[in-house]
Write a structure and sequence with these properties.
heterodimer; A: about 300 residues; mainly alpha; MetI-like fold; about 70% helix; globular; B: about 325 residues; about 0% strand; MetI-like_sf (chain A); transmembrane helix (chain A); transmembrane (chain A)
Chain lengths: ~300, ~325
C-alpha cells in the first residue's frame, strides 16, 4: 500500500510534465497552423487552391501570387503609405511621449497631476465615433495623410509606461547636470532619453504595430481616396470579396494580361498580402520580447 | 539662475521622501510658473493637443439633444431634449445590439481571463527554460497581427469548402457534414470568443507570469513541507499570489464592458448573422456615418461612454472596500 503511494508520487511529475508538454505543443500548433496554411496558399497556384486539400505545404508551387501583389500599383502605393505612416507615427510618437513623460515624472512640476489625469481619463472616456468624425472633418483632416498621424500621437498607456520607468531612474544622474545649469530640455534629451532605451523599444513597438495594423481610420476618414489606402485596408477589401466570393475587379485588373498563364484568385492574393504584411512584425517582435515584457508590467503599476 | 532656485526646491522636498505629497512644497504662483517654464513648454502643448483631440469633441454631444441636420447652422438646429434617448431605448435593434455587446464582452472577459491564467499556471510549471521561451514567443505572435489578418484566418479556418475546423471535426466524427459556421447567428458569439482567445491568450499570460514570478519562493517551500501537492500549491499559493493583478485587470476590463470589440464583428458579420453580430459600435457606424442619423448615433455613443465611466468608478470603489489595489 505504502509502495503504491510512493510510486505514484514519483511518477506524478513525469506524467504531469509529459501531459503539460504535449498540451504546450498543441497550443503552438494551433497558433502556427493558420500561418503555415496561409504561407502554403500564397505559394500555391490560385486555381489549384480552389480544388482544396492544401494544408501546410504548397502542391502547385508558383510565385505568381507575389508577382501579382508586387506589380499591382495599388498595393505598391498602399505599402508606401503603410510604411510612411508607421515610421512617422513611431518617430514623433516616441519623442513626444517620452518628453511628456519626463515632465510628468518631475515631482515638483505643478501641472504633473492635472496633465496626468487628463491622459488617464482618456483610457475610459471617449467622445465617441460621431463627434470624433466631426472633429476630424472640421479640422480639415478628411482625405489627408495627417489623419493617420495626428489623432493618435500620444497614448495614455504608453505614457504611463514611460513615466513609471523615468521615475525609477536614480535622481543622482540628473542632479549634477542641474547644478551645472543645464535646462530641462537638455537634461531630458542628453541624459534621460538615452537612458530609456529598453522602454523606448517597447513604446516604439506598440506604436509601430498599432499604426501598421490599423485600417479603420482609412475606412472612416479616407476610404474614397485610393492614394491614401494602406495594406491593411486593401486586405480588408479583399476579405469582403473572398467572403462573398466575388472577384474584386479593382485589384485583379492589374493582372488581366497574365490571366492566361495562371489564375490569381482573391484568396491567393490575400494570402500573399497577409504574408507580406505579417513578415515585418514577425522579424521584429521576437527580438524585442524581453523589452515589452518589462514594459507591459511597468504599465500595470497604478498612478 | 532659475535652475538654482529649482534646485533649492528639490532639496527642500527631499526629506519628505516624495510619496507623501510632493505638491505641498510648490504652489501655483507666477514665480513657480517662471521657474518651471521649460517643463511647461515641454508638456502644455502636448496637453493642449490632447484636449483638442479627446475633449473638444465632447462638444459634439449636443447633437444627441438635437435633431441635427448638417446643412443647418448651430443656431438653427432643432432641440429635442431626450427624445433621441427615448427612441434609442424603445428601438428593438438597439436593445438587440446592446444584448450582443454585453454578451460578447462577458464571453471575452471570462474566456480571456481564465485561459490566460490557466496558460500562465501551466507555463510556469515548465522547467526547461528554452522550451518555455519558444512556447511563449510563439504564443505572442497573433497579438501583433491585425484583426484584418485574424478575421481572414478565422474565415478561412471555418470555411465550408476546405476549412480546417470542419475537416478536423469530420475526421473525428463529431459532425457528419461541414457546418456553415459563419452563416448561422447562434455560433457567432462562440466564434468571437474563440478567436479572441486564439489572438490574445499568449499576450494575456505576460502580466500573470510576472505576478507569479514575484511570489515569495519560501511560500512554496512552506507549502511543500506541509505536504501540499502541485495542484494544491497552485490553488493555495499561486492563485492568491496573483489576486491583486487579477483585480486590477478586472477593474480595467469592466470599464470596457461595452467595448465588445468592433473590428472582428464588423469583418466577420454578414446579413445572415446580423442579429447576433452587431455591436453598439457597428450600430453607431451604421446609423451615423452610413445613414446620416448623427443625433441618434451620438446618443448611442454617449450611453456607451457614461456606462463605462460609471462602471470603472463602481469597480474601483468595490475594490477599495475589499482592500484591494485600486486603479484611480
Amino acid at each position: 500500500m505504502k509502495a503504491v503511494t510512493k510510486g505514484s508520487s514519483r511518477f506524478e511529475p513525469v506524467v504531469f510534465h509529459t501531459i503539460n508538454s504535449i498540451f504546450m505543443l498543441f497550443v503552438v500548433a494551433i497558433t502556427l497552423y493558420p500561418f503555415l496554411h496561409t504561407l502554403a496558399v500564397s505559394l500555391n497556384d490560385g486555381s489549384d487552391t480552389l480544388a482544396g486539400g492544401i494544408y501546410f505545404w504548397p502542391r502547385d508551387w508558383t510565385m505568381e501570387n507575389y508577382r501579382a501583389v508586387f506589380i499591382s500599383g495599388t498595393i505598391y502605393h498602399a505599402a508606401f503609405i503603410s510604411v510612411s505612416r508607421t515610421v512617422l507615427s513611431t518617430v514623433f510618437g516616441v519623442f513626444l511621449t517620452t518628453m511628456l513623460a519626463y515632465t510628468l515624472a518631475q515631482q515638483q512640476y505643478i501641472f504633473r497631476k492635472k496633465i496626468g489625469m487628463l491622459f488617464i481619463l482618456t483610457m475610459y472616456f471617449n467622445a465617441g465615433l460621431i463627434p470624433n468624425y466631426f472633429l476630424i472633418k472640421n479640422l480639415g483632416l478628411l482625405h489627408s495623410f495627417m489623419v493617420y498621424i495626428l489623432p493618435s500621437l500620444v497614448g495614455a498607456f504608453n505614457l504611463i509606461i514611460m513615466r513609471t520607468y523615468i521615475r525609477s531612474l536614480p535622481g543622482s544622474l540628473t542632479e549634477s547636470a542641474k547644478i551645472d545649469g543645464a535646462g530641462e530640455f537638455r537634461i531630458f534629451w542628453k541624459i534621460v532619453f538615452p537612458l530609456c532605451t529598453p522602454v523606448l523599444a517597447t513604446v516604439a513597438l506598440f506604436i509601430a504595430v498599432g499604426a501598421w495594423n490599423s485600417w479603420f481610420d482609412t475606412f472612416l476618414y479616407a476610404s474614397s481616396d485610393i492614394k491614401l489606402s494602406t495594406l491593411q485596408y486593401e486586405m480588408m477589401k479583399l476579405l469582403g470579396s473572398t467572403m462573398s466570393t466575388n472577384n474584386d475587379p479593382s485589384l485583379l485588373a492589374g493582372n488581366q494580361h497574365n490571366q492566361a498563364q495562371a489564375l490569381v484568385t482573391p484568396a491567393s492574393i490575400r494570402a500573399a498580402i497577409t504574408i507580406v504584411t505579417a513578415v515585418p512584425i514577425l522579424f521584429v517582435y521576437p527580438f524585442l520580447q524581453k523589452y515589452f515584457v518589462v514594459g507591459l508590467n511597468l504599465g500595470s503599476v497604478k498612478e | 539662475m532659475s535652475d538654482a532656485v529649482l534646485d533649492k526646491q528639490v532639496k527642500k522636498q527631499k526629506p519628505r521622501k516624495s510619496r507623501v505629497d510632493p505638491e505641498i512644497g510648490v504652489s501655483l504662483s507666477w514665480k513657480t510658473l517662471k521657474i518651471q517654464k521649460q517643463l511647461i513648454f515641454m508638456s502644455v502643448p502636448i496637453a493642449i493637443y490632447l484636449i483638442i483631440f479627446n475633449y473638444i469633441p465632447i462638444w459634439g454631444w449636443l447633437m444627441a439633444f438635437q435633431n441635427y441636420r448638417p446643412a443647418r447652422s448651430f443656431g438653427q438646429q432643432e432641440w429635442v431634449g431626450l427624445q433621441q434617448f427615448k427612441f434609442l431605448f424603445a428601438d428593438e435593434t438597439f436593445l438587440m445590439v446592446l444584448r450582443n455587446t454585453v454578451a460578447m464582452s462577458f464571453i471575452n472577459l471570462i474566456l480571456g481571463t481564465t485561459t490566460a491564467i490557466g496558460l500562465a499556471l501551466l507555463l510556469n510549471e515548465i522547467k526547461v527554460k528554452f522550451f518555455k521561451r519558444i512556447v511563449q514567443s510563439i504564443s505572442y505572435l497573433p497579438h501583433f497581427l491585425s484583426w484584418v489578418i485574424a478575421a481572414g484566418i478565422v474565415a478561412t479556418s471555418l470555411s465550408i469548402d476546405d476549412g480546417i475546423v470542419n475537416i478536423v471535426l469530420m475526421k473525428l466524427h463529431f459532425i457528419k457534414e461541414p457546418i456553415m459556421w459563419l452563416s448561422e447567428g447562434k455560433y457567432f458569439w462562440g466564434i468571437v470568443g474563440a478567436s479572441n482567445v486564439w489572438k490574445e491568450v499568449g499576450w494575456g499570460t505576460i502580466i500573470y507570469l510576472a505576478a507569479i514570478t514575484s511570489i515569495d519562493p519560501s511560500l512554496y517551500e512552506a507549502a511543500s513541507i506541509d505536504g501540499a501537492k502541485r495542484f494544491q500549491k497552485m490553488r493555495y499559493v499561486t492563485l492568491p499570489g496573483i489576486k491583486a493583478t487579477f483585480v486590477i485587470l478586472l477593474i480595467m476590463n469592466i470599464g470596457h464592458i461595452l467595448d465588445a470589440g468592433f473590428e472582428l464583428q464588423y469583418l466577420l458579420g454578414n446579413g445572415l448573422t446580423v442579429d447576433w453580430s452587431q455591436t453598439i459600435d457597428i450600430f453607431v457606424l451604421k446609423y451615423g456615418i452610413s445613414m446620416g442619423n448623427y443625433s441618434l448615433a451620438t446618443a448611442a455613443g454617449i450611453f456607451k461612454t457614461i456606462v463605462s465611466v460609471v462602471l470603472v468608478f463602481i469597480a474601483n470603489y468595490i475594490a477599495k472596500r475589499l482592500g484591494e489595489e485600486r486603479l484611480i
